[in-house]
Design goal:
- By secondary structure, this protein is of the alpha+beta class.
- Strands 1, 2, 3, 4, 5 and 6 form a six-stranded antiparallel beta sheet that branches.
- A hairpin with a 3-residue loop joins strand 3 and strand 4.
């Protein structure tokens, strides 16, 4: 299945292969979290515990769009991954360019103090609203 992989410090690349849970888990380095960024099931797969599973129990390295650690952009339909269309791939790469310098709000702060409980939910809701609005313009 076609998707996008963005590893920390490397350019985003197109991936065409099996998007199994094990593959996604190993790519992001832990439990996966799916974050909607576009219509029709376009989602970022990231490490659910990115704030706490980096060196010395701190955050993973910054990546594009405020995500920590390696990420994938995938298309989901009915709970299963599907091929991204050429237009979705184009927009996915553009999304990573537009948000290349957005940093996670926890950078330089104690992880425990920034994204727990309601604060984590508020951050994810704001990110989702913002990126859904932007997706249409990419």
């Amino acid at each position: 299945m076609k998707a996008i992989i963005k590893r920390v410090g490397e350019p985003a690349v197109e991936f065409d292969g099996d998007l199994t849970y094990d593959f996604m888990n190993s790519t992001v380095g832990g439990y996966i979290q799916m974050v909607p960024i576009g219509p029709n099931g376009i989602e970022v797969v990231c490490n659910e515990e990115g704030m706490f599973c980096g060196p010395d129990g701190g955050p993973l390295a910054q990546n594009a769009a405020g995500f920590l650690g390696n990420v994938l952009i995938v298309a989901v339909d009915g709970g299963s991954c599907r091929d991204m269309t050429e237009e979705e791939l184009r927009k996915g790469f553009r999304y990573l360019e537009v948000f290349a310098n957005v940093k996670h709000p926890g950078e330089g702060l104690e992880a425990q103090a920034i994204l727990v409980g309601d604060e984590a939910e508020k951050f994810m809701e704001q990110k989702t609203r913002s990126t859904l609005d932007t997706w249409a313009s990419l």
